[in-house]
Write a sequence for this structure.
């Protein structure tokens, strides 16, 4: 199971500061939010003083003189306070939605820039948790939770100030209780940081497990592995329950303690103030205000503690978002190159040189980022434009390494790769990508229609160009038979189509891209025999006039390649034409004759079976 990068052990304001720039576009809304929170808190703290005035001037004096004006003022103040509540709610919504949207956009943009190696080692579920769950939490933090903290803090300050002004002795008693609550809260906060981090990490594991099952549902069912998957998920789920329970138990234990201390404070205020009233040292209206304040102090203390606890728990969310933001872009253009050619979002195609297709490896050494072992050392190879290069070998032999380097999914550890005589690191990454036509071993289609999937390679293509590409890919025939032809929705990942049909559409997409460099990555390994025959028959036409790379397990499909490279355990074993390698009588010869014998045996037994059926 993938383990996340270890997070800090304590609250770190520096991590939060990196999130603050997302608030910059909402400075005006934040200012209004802060103002209206303090504004409404002032009125909430002021209303008990109105009660004091009513008791001392109307009830005790048993008169109604001025009651109408008093009532009118009271209602007016209530209306003004209500206006403040409406405004801060509106501003909170704008901030919550805006910050969440901006963070998701920036994360998604950064993810597009990340290199292949990042996705090779990071589960989809963990990335989804960062982009969706954590950004939503941040949006809520800087809106509703921030508003609540400001409101309750202001309300608490106004109450304490009013108490100290009304009676210093009683005010100090209540202030002392509030300080005790603050000390307890600080201790609980530190403990909650650690517990919440553990719970959040486990939550990400649950999300990743869900994603893994959903994407592999067909495999699980075909292997009757439901029980095994459930057992594995059950343990992850139970661990999430255990860790979450530790957080909830601490939170739920903490709140009753706060409530008990606040109730004790009320009892203490009453026991001290009643004798003061009897001795005429305190008027009844002031006593009523103190009792009201002391009872109401429980609410803001509880709410404030809860908000602070929740804020502390978000430390893990903030750190994880920052870790994703910090994910290194392993393959990127230099600033000099970007200034000339643009980047992947702001291209300057008018500066792009026209590509011919000459490729040269110059003393290239390469090792994968997570390995110390070189899979290429001082490798040299010159490929002229229009050359067909076949890379063959057993499954897992490392056939994709050369292609990954040519496509710049990875860059040489040492040495350089020239395209048309220029180090491709001195040209734009997007310039190279725009000249690639890549057919994957396992075709990936996007949700949408057939037409949308083919046009993904060239959004401005005409319908005539799309149809022409589909015809060359031998896909036009079955597309016409679909319910709505090219406008047929193919479902998520093309699930409504067979694997062979998906592959033909992906080939049509590659044809429409019309890149000068064509890659066929075991394009026939996962399709049926009929589709394999179609693809093999069209290969020569597809690769015509292009610098091409065919990655294949079956040697019979690459006999006509200009150069054949045999790879074993990540290293190049032999290289030459088909005839040269056979005459050499080495590893390629033995692999080819072995496969030829297998093919001949298959043909023989098939012929016997056909004769028997006849």
């Amino acid at each position: 199971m993938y383990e996340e990068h270890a997070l800090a052990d304590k609250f770190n304001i520096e991590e939060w500061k990196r999130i603050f720039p997302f608030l910059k576009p909402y400075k005006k809304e934040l200012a209004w939010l802060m103002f209206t929170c303090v504004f409404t808190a002032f009125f909430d703290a002021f209303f008990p003083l109105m009660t004091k005035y009513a008791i001392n001037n109307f009830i005790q004096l048993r008169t109604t003189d001025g009651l109408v004006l008093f009532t009118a003022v009271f209602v007016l103040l209530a209306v003004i306070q209500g206006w403040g509540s409406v405004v801060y709610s509106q501003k909170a919504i704008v901030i919550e939605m805006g910050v969440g949207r901006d963070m998701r956009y920036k994360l998604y943009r950064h993810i597009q820039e990340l290199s292949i190696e990042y996705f090779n080692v990071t589960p989809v579920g963990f990335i989804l948790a960062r982009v969706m769950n954590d950004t939503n939490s941040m949006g809520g933090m800087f809106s509703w939770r921030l508003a609540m903290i400001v409101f309750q803090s202001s309300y608490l300050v106004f109450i304490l100030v009013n108490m100290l002004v009304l009676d210093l002795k009683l005010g100090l008693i209540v202030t002392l209780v509030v300080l005790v609550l603050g000390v307890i809260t600080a201790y609980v906060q530190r403990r909650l940081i650690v517990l919440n981090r553990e719970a959040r990490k486990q939550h990400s594991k649950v999300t990743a497990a869900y994603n893994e099952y959903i994407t592999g549902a067909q495999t699980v069912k075909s292997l009757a592995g439901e029980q095994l998957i459930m057992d594995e998920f059950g343990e992850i789920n139970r661990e999430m329950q255990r860790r979450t329970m530790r957080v909830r138990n601490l939170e739920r234990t903490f709140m009753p303690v706060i409530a008990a201390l606040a109730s004790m404070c009320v009892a203490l205020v009453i026991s001290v103030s009643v004798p003061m009233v009897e001795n005429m040292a305190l008027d009844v209206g002031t006593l009523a205000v103190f009792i009201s304040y002391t009872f109401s102090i429980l609410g803001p203390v509880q709410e404030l503690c809860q908000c602070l606890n929740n804020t502390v728990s978000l430390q893990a969310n903030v750190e994880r978002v920052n870790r994703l933001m910090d994910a290194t872009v392993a393959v990127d253009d230099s600033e000099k190159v970007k200034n000339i050619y643009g980047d992947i979002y702001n291209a300057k195609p008018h500066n792009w040189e026209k590509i011919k297709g000459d490729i040269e490896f110059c003393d290239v050494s390469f090792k994968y980022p997570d390995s110390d072992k070189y899979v290429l050392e001082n490798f040299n190879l010159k490929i002229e434009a229009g050359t067909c290069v076949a890379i063959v070998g057993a499954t897992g032999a490392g056939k994709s390494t050369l292609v990954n380097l040519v496509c710049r999914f990875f860059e040489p550890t040492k040495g350089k790769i020239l395209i048309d005589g220029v180090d491709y690191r001195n040209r734009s990454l997007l310039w190279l990508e725009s000249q690639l036509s890549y057919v994957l071993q396992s075709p990936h289609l996007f949700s949408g229609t057939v037409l949308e999937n083919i046009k993904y390679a060239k959004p401005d293509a005409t319908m005539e160009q799309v149809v022409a590409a589909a015809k060359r890919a031998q896909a036009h025939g079955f597309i016409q038979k679909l319910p709505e032809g090219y406008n047929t929705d193919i479902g998520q990942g093309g699930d409504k189509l067979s694997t062979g049909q998906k592959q033909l559409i992906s080939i049509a997409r590659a044809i429409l891209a019309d890149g000068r460099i064509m890659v066929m990555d075991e394009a026939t390994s996962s399709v049926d025999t009929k589709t394999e025959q179609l693809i093999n028959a069209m290969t020569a036409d597809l690769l015509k006039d292009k610098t091409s790379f065919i990655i294949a397990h079956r040697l019979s499909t690459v006999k006509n390649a200009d150069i054949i490279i045999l790879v074993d355990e990540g290293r190049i074993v032999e290289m030459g034409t088909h005839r040269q390698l056979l005459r050499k009588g080495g590893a390629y010869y033995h692999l080819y004759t072995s496969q030829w014998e297998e093919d001949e045996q298959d043909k023989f037994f098939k012929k016997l079976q056909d004769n028997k059926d006849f």
Q: What stands out?
A: The mean pLDDT is 84. The chain is about 65% helix and 10% strand.
